[in-house]
Amino acid sequence: MMSLITVSVGATVVQMMPEAPQPSLSASPVVTMKQARLALAQANRIEQIEAAISSLPDEQQRRARIEWEYSTTIERNNPVLIQLAEAIGMPDAEIDALFAVAAQL
Q1: Is 85 exposed, middle or buried (0-12, 13-18, 19+ CB in 10 A)?
Q2: What is the three-state SS of 9-68?
Q3: pLDDT in tens, 42-58
Q4: Phi and psi of 33, rounded to 5°?
Q5: In the 8-state DSSP scheme, what is residue 88?
Q6: pTM, two decimal places
Q7: Partners of 73 in the beta sheet?
Q8: CA–CA separation, 8 vs 92, rounded Å?
Q9: Is 70 helix (H, G, I), strand (E, B) or coil?
Q10: At a CB cut-off of 8 Å and minimum separation 6, what does 59 contact?
Q11: What are the CA-CA distances from residue 27 to residues 21, 23, 24, 75, 88 (Å)?
Q12: Looking only at Cα atoms, what is the longest distance across the chain?
């Protein structure tokens, strides 16, 4: 878990999170599903992902549910992840940030 950084500028004191490490675009980051779920929970996105899975057509829903419930890891470029992220309006930058957070958990 990252710690807040305290920065003083004159009489103003600001606390902020350090920038998350940027994933390499040439590699596909992989995190455990536990890490992914914890990062999604911190971002208050788990319920949205579960609702997106439930809204898929039967065959796609079955595949997504199997991956969500039984996979031990998830790759950044996983097609199901990309489909679910699009369904909930999650931009690529947020996915990358979630992977960076997940990797630290």
Answers
A1: buried
A2: ECCEEEEECCCCCCCCCCCCCEEEHHHHHHHHHHCCCHHHHHHHHHCCCHHHHHHHHHHH
A3: 999 999 999 999 999 99
A4: -65, -30
A5: T
A6: 0.69
A7: 32
A8: 32
A9: helix
A10: none
A11: 14, 8, 6, 10, 25
A12: 59
